[in-house]
């Protein structure tokens, strides 16, 4: 068979279908989470992300700018998912202290476990720069304010002290990460956080 005939029988490569910006952003985030899950946060660079996503480096730089920008985007996505999960559960819960506390405890733990063991690594990476630490603090402030609004009606003083909310958040993170690492079960993490929330409200009475 001649080379001419061979060329005629070889199908032409299909042109790549270009993704919209939103879909490309979604793809890049999904690939970034996969890299963190399989290789750890240290392996996640913009170059590595471009390689794994099958795109040119300028595409990744256009979406995230810098490596800290990429980690900030990952954390914001996790935080948005956590907020949405809790808001949905709160709307369906009983308007009682135990009902609200149970939702906060289960939603926080469930969201961390749904994201997998990679989220502690992402959060640890946030402490690597003041820029990323600021992003984390801003998201934490929104979460604590949401909890304060939900729990304040059950406190005699009509509000929850900031120190109590900060302690609750610290416990939520520690218990959720312990569950993600397999040190305790999800139920144990949720039950302990539930009791901590009740105690926090009781101290505010």
UniProtKB/TrEMBL annotation:
Region spans: Disordered: 1-21
Record PROSITE patterns: HTH_TETR_2
Keyword check for Ribosomal protein: no
Matches recorded under Pfam families: TetR_N
SUPFAM superfamilies to which the protein is assigned, alphabetical: Homeodomain-like
InterPro entries (alphabetical): Homeodomain-like_sf (IPR009057), HTH-type_TetR-like_transc_reg (IPR050109), HTH_TetR (IPR001647)
Listed transmembrane segments: none
A molecular-function term among this protein's GO annotations: DNA-binding transcription factor activity
Keyword list, A-Z: DNA-binding
Name of the protein described by the UniProt record: TetR family transcriptional regulator
Residues of the HTH tetR-type domain: 22-82
Record-annotated DNA-binding residue ranges: 45-64
């Amino acid at each position: 068979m001649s080379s001419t005939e061979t060329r005629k029988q070889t199908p032409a490569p299909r042109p790549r279908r270009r993704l919209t910006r939103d879909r490309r952003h979604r793809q890049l985030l999904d690939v970034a989470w996969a890299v963190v899950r399989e290789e750890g946060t240290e392996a996640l660079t913009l170059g590595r992300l471009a390689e794994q996503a099958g795109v040119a480096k300028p595409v990744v730089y256009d979406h995230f700018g810098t490596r800290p920008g990429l980690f900030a985007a990952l954390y914001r996505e996790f935080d948005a998912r956590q907020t949405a999960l809790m808001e949905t559960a709160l709307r369906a819960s009983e308007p009682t202290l135990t009902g609200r506390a149970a939702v906060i405890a289960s939603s926080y733990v469930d969201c961390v476990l749904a994201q997998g063991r990679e989220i502690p690594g992402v959060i640890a990476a946030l402490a690597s720069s003041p820029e990323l630490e600021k992003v984390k603090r801003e998201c934490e402030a929104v979460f604590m304010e949401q909890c304060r609004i939900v729990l304040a009606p059950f406190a005699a003083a009509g509000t929850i002290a900031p120190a109590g909310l900060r302690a609750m958040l610290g416990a939520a993170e520690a218990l959720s990460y312990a569950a993600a690492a397999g040190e305790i079960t999800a139920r144990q993490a949720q039950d302990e956080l539930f009791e901590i929330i009740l105690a926090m409200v009781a101290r505010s009475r």
